Amino acid sequence: MMEWVSLLLDAMWAAIPAVGFGMIFNVPRSALPLCALGGALTYGLREVLLHHHFSIELSTFIAATAIGIIGVFWSRRYVMPRPVYTVPSIIPMIPGTYAYEMMISLVSMNTDGVTDALLSSFIENGLHAVSILFAIAFGLVLPSMYYTKRKQPII
Amino acid sequence: MILPIERKKGFPTISKEEQTRITTVVVRVAAMLLEYGAESRLIEQLSSRLGVALGCTSIEISLIPSAIVLTTLIGDSSVTTTRRAHEQPINMSIVHQIVAICIAAEQNPRNIMMVERSLANIHANPYPTWLIVPIIGLSCAAFSHLQGADWPGFWITFLAASVGMMVRRALSSRNYSLLIVFAFTAFVCTLIGSLAFYHDLSSTGRIVLSSSVLLLVPGFPYINSMLDAFKGYISMGWGRWTQATLLTLMSSLGIMLAMGLLDIKGW
User: Fold this and answer.
1) Looking at residue A3, what is its pLDDT?
2) Half-sphere CA count of B267, side-chain side, radius 13 A
3) Per the confidence metrics, is the pTM higher than 0.80?
4) By three-state DSSP, how is residue B3 classified?
5) A18-27, pLDDT tens digit by residue?
6) Fewer CB within 10 Å, N side or C side of chain B?
7) Into how many domains does chain B fold?
8) B67 and B91 fall within a common domain
9) HSE on the CB side for A127, CA within 13 Å?
10) What ipTM is given for this predicted complex?
11) Do B125 and A28 touch (CB under 8 A)?
12) Which of residues 113-132 of B touch A (CB under 8 A)?
């Protein structure tokens, strides 16, 4: 029971960055609630998958694919291009901490000399950051690849 | 003015002047979509749909990241034009309005007056600074909370990201290059975020530093580059990928400068 409450709370926290980045990208006002919902959904889904011991890349990929498919339905219904919803929704999953740690270890390798610990931290964090980024992008591309096969445009 | 509808088979009834006018409208739509951050497939689809709705036989389009070449074909006569795309901040509101205009044009075919009038009425619809600054601060603070920062860290992230957003808006409105804006914003964010190490205000300083620069994530260029590359617009994908990578590198440069200045031992 407590797990569900904390999951819901985390999802609500994740909705805030989705709205904030929606504002940076200047999405229409009517799309902001959907961005919030999308951000909460993707983050919540990823947390559930992580809880069931999926790897972080795989759970990110599944969550991004889910918002890609939902985005197709929303864009038909509200007549908007899909990136309006999908890009703000995946923002909470951006691997910021991994990328930052990677950069830090790179800088300290330059100043303090290369050690095994720094090198492994650089490679591990860098691989995580890059593979999560690719998982997000590929997850978003997959649904629209399916619709590219048909000649009919989505909206 | 509604253009005459009756067309003999295979013979265009649209004069060269009218075709030039149609071309101007269509290339304007395509250039706006490119400037404000639509993906290449959307640009090609929307401009060819608009062109057909205005009476063309077909539209051929060639895209590179900084320019657009567009040809309208009506029967045997063709008009070609080129436009330079200037760098603009991402604006999905404008993209949405253009989509709405194209759909309206398809429902009222060959009504070029209506399209021109609605194109002139497009508004950028920006969010006010007093709203966007605290919201971005709160977003980055929410990031830090999700990564497990403590409450002092939460508030420091809020402060750093809000000030960073103010700096970013101020620099953008003075028309500095986007690369300079990103580097300087990252510098300011890191300077303020490193308050977390001052007298050990927060025990999770590294999370604070990494989340306070997250407002600089180039989300749209990255996603657009992947979407373009996967859908067959390889050169556009590369161009946008380069742009996103450059922006990330410039933000890292700002972070490193600030760290070198303060000599933070965050690791």
Assistant:
1) 85
2) 19
3) yes
4) coil
5) 999 999 999 9
6) N
7) 2
8) yes
9) 6
10) 0.90
11) yes
12) 124-127, 131-132
